[in-house]
Specification:
This protein is mostly beta strands. The protein has one domain: 6 Propeller (Neuraminidase), CATH 2.120.10.30. Helices cover 0% and strands 57% of the residues. The chain has a 4-stranded antiparallel sheet with strand order 2-3-4-5, with no helix packed on it. Strands 6-7-8-9 form a 4-stranded antiparallel sheet, with no helix packed on it. Strands 10-11-12-13 form a 4-stranded antiparallel sheet, with no helix packed on it. The protein starts with a strand and ends with a strand. 35% of the residues are buried.
Length: 265
């Protein structure tokens, strides 16, 4: 039997009991989510971007939505009055920059179309970081939402990206740590690879990078000390069992939530 699970792992000792507070049923299939200032930004493929007020967790309420006919929204990152959405149609991919200052009426302001894959997306200080597969990591200035402009390119494969301070953490089979303090000239500081298998996703909490790992048979999570970005060091790993697949992960302080599926044996 195939079971889908959300696992909660603690990097430090944790004893707590959690209870469901509320839920919100989306109109489509939720593909990505980010919560900023009590607003949840959810993308749902052809249903587009949904904005949900979660200030009362027992009663989440939809505020507004944006969808572009013919395009499927699959990644989202939000900051201030801007939400960036990765949208695809056929072989085409584009970054949509959406004004969410009026959450009841989000409006498209501009698009960036020079993308190959648009696998993942992060947003920090007015710069969108796009993991564009074999085309590399693109740094796109969205501070003028009507005219997004590429500032720089790290020309190595990037399939996932997380940004913390002036560092971008990319996944390209292993982990790459990129100095993006000069957006026009991103430079790799260090990296960490594994002997067997590959990394799939990454999240950052403090001085630790947590990466999902798989070898096609079993999956798990690897914890890497990145306090010295020029010399990341593996600390330990956690296995999820045979035939497990890890889809996504999120860090909340010392807690890492891992989402995936596995065969119940």
């Amino acid at each position: 039997m195939l079971v889908v699970a959300a696992l909660v792992l603690a990097l430090l000792p944790l004893v707590a009991v959690y209870h469901k507070l509320g839920d919100f049923t989306t109109s489509g299939n939720g593909l990505d989510i980010q919560v900023v200032n009590n607003t949840a930004y959810i993308v749902e493929g052809t249903s587009g971007l949904q904005l949900v007020d979660v200030s009362d967790p027992q009663n989440p309420v939809q505020l507004g939505s944006y969808a572009q006919t013919g395009w499927s929204a699959n990644q989202v990152a939000a900051e201030g009055d801007i939400a960036c959405v990765m949208a695809v149609t056929g072989a085409q991919c584009r970054l949509q920059v959406i004004d969410v200052s009026n959450p009841q009426n989000p409006a498209l302001q501009g698009t960036f179309t020079d993308l190959a894959n648009g696998d993942d997306l992060a947003l920090q200080d007015g710069i969108a970081y796009v993991a564009d597969g074999n085309a590399g990591l693109r740094l796109i200035d969205v501070s003028n939402p009507q005219n997004p402009v590429q500032l720089g390119l790290f020309n190595q494969e990037a399939n996932q990206v997380e940004v913390a301070d002036s560092l971008a953490y990319i996944i390209n089979g292993g982990l790459g740590i990129i100095d993006v303090s000069d957006p026009a000239n991103p430079v790799q500081l260090g990296g960490y690879g594994i002997d067997m298998g590959w990394m799939g996703d990454v999240t950052i909490t403090g001085n630790y990078a947590c990466a999902t790992i798989s070898n096609g048979v079993a999956g798990g999570m690897l914890v890497i000390d990145v306090s010295d970005p020029t010399n990341p060091t593996g600390l330990g790993s956690f296995g999820f069992g045979v035939k497990s697949s890890i889809y996504n992960m999120m860090a909340l302080g010392n807690i890492v939530m891992v989402f995936g599926a596995g065969e119940d044996t």
